[in-house]
Amino acid sequence: EGTYDPSLTDSIVRLANPLGAETSLLRPSLLPALLKTASNHHNHKIVDLRLFEMGKIFRREGGVLKESRSLAGIVTGEKVDFFGLKGVLEGLAAHFGLSFDFRAGSHPFQLPGKSAEIVLGEKPIGSMGEIHPEWMDRYKLKANTSFFEISWDEIEGGVSGKVYSGPQSRDSQP
After folding, report:
1. Are 158 and 120 a contacting pair, CB within 8 Å?
2. Backbone phi, psi, residue 56, to 5°
3. Which residues, at least 6 apart from 129, have a Cβ–Cβ distance to it below 8 Å?
4. 103 with 133: CB under 8 angstroms?
5. If you write DSSP's letter for every residue of the chain in order, what string do you get?
């Protein structure tokens, strides 16, 4: 629980019969797992990383369990910064014919002044930023680290008229 954003404490879903302490919660964010993976790589002197995960997250909102899909990424290395990651997200949005806005934001994992809320239309759909030194120490990260996490459900909802129909065979192409 101490590895998650403290603002999520009230929305964390605890399991009634967990197999162990590490599996006692349904994860409200993908970020801690990515930080742990980056830490394992850094311990083996692999510091230039680009890690991404898409998965389900769970939060309790108003007493109701909410399951949603999230896309998160973490980049580490000497040449990593806030603006490079912002470019990656702008490219992702453009790929789907969308446009993200970035507003000043704050997040317990993020370095003040190097964090942003990601907005689609008028709706906040995620956050991004450079990892705060306190969290870098906690995870024993040895290089600059930036991350993002966005609601995949919101992105999918913003992509209208573009439906993926599966791989195309050569015979079906004009």
Report:
1. yes
2. -85, 140
3. 82, 105, 107, 109, 110, 111, 114, 115, 116, 146, 147, 148
4. no
5. -TTS-GGGGGGPEEPSS-SSGGGSEE-S-SHHHHHHHHHHHHHTT---EEEEEEEEEEEEETTEEEEEEEEEEEEESTT--HHHHHHHHHHHHHHTT--EEEEE---TTEEEEEEEEEEETTEEEEEEEEEPHHHHHHTT--S-EEEEEEEHHHHHHH--S-----PPPGGG--
In this structure, of 1-5, 38-42, 140-144, 164-168, the range with the lowest mean pLDDT score is 1-5
- Neighbouring C-alpha atoms within 13 Å toward the C-beta of 100: 28
Each residue's pLDDT tens digit, 34-70:
999 999 999 999 999 999 999 999 888 888 889 999 9
The token duo for 12 is 């964390």
Which of 18-22, 80-84, 99-103, 155-159 is modeled with the greatest confidence?
Answer: 99-103
Instruction: Match 């609601």 to its residue by tokens.
Output: 151
| Residue 153 and residue 71 in contact, taking contact as beta carbons nearer than 8 Å | no
Give the number of other Cβ atoms within 10 Å of residue 137's Cβ: 9
Residue 125: closest CA among 95, 156, 96: 156
